[in-house]
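Human: I'm a chemist; would you kindly supply sequence and structure tokens for a protein?

Assistant:
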Amino acid sequence: MQPSEEQRELQRTVRRLLERSADSAALRKAVESDVGYDTEVWRRLAAEVGVAALGVPERYDGTGFTALESMLVLEELGGMLTPSPMLGSAVLATQALLLSGDDQACHDLLPALARGERTAALAWLGPNAWGPDSTAVTACPTSAGASVLTGRAHHVLDGDTADDLVVAARTGDGIGLFAVGADQEGLERRPANGMDLTRRLSTVTLDHCQGRLLGEDGTGTQVLTRVRDLACAGLAMEQVGAAARCLQQTVAYTKEREQFGRPIGSFQAIKHRLADLYVLVQTARSAAYAATAAAAEPDAGDLAHGAAVAKVYCSEALFAVASEAVQLHGGIAITWEHDAQLYLKRAHGSMQLFGQPRAHVSRLADVILG
């Protein structure tokens, strides 16, 4: 896939905004804030660029593009390691709402999400699995026609700060999706400690919380299967952006750092290592773009295949680039003031997010072998 000129301009616009407002000091200030990201940067991204509205149809006050444009934005956010609700709210939660087929819920929730005035989080995972049916939450119907949800969801992106929650719960008919008010009694949301400080994860505990069924009961597994694939494709774009930016910074450093009276980048051994990393980044971009192109098409098989490939290859590519960056920067790379350690931590965290690469290798084998 080759992005169109309009899509390239979207990426350039996002990049310019981030370069003007998000430097290393701002990044550290953002991750230490109560919400884990810079609310002013997110407001500008949503209001001036419309990033939260890209994947939302016009009838819900969105711009009517596909998930592809949202993922191109993720590449730029990944490059700067910019913490934001983009992946968790504008991709996961928004797509779950759309795929639920619940028109009324979409009318109620999506306009504010598209404007960036509110954020949403998708809570579906149990403690030890990343499958679409791995929820540890159960839902029991009440005589009033509502449902009561009990259980705990793990690894919820921005789950402790989101204004709205979409929760997957096990019902008598399978897995259902439920809209849950974030301010009701019985709901406890706590940030989870993770290696990647630029990614806000949380646990969401529900103790007899009221939930409104989204769409048809029992369709949650189908919805979450596609949402997980979209998540992997979006994550791969983040990883490619981070790998490219990390490599760029490393190349620049090798031109400045001197040994034996000359820049270390002039040594042939260093040139070979950097050339190998460049090839790795470009092939990872090809894998991520293939998955992104599949995300804009209705064929679930193509997306499942592309997302699994991208998740495996881009996870390993970012880890390789970030690891070499630490080696080539030397001791300064592991200090808090330097960004190299943040890229390495992002590589570790992203590799685990939505399932380890080996799990997707097994899934890829299932897809290929039918």
User: Anything to note?
Assistant: The radius of gyration is 21 Å. The chain has a mean pLDDT of 92.
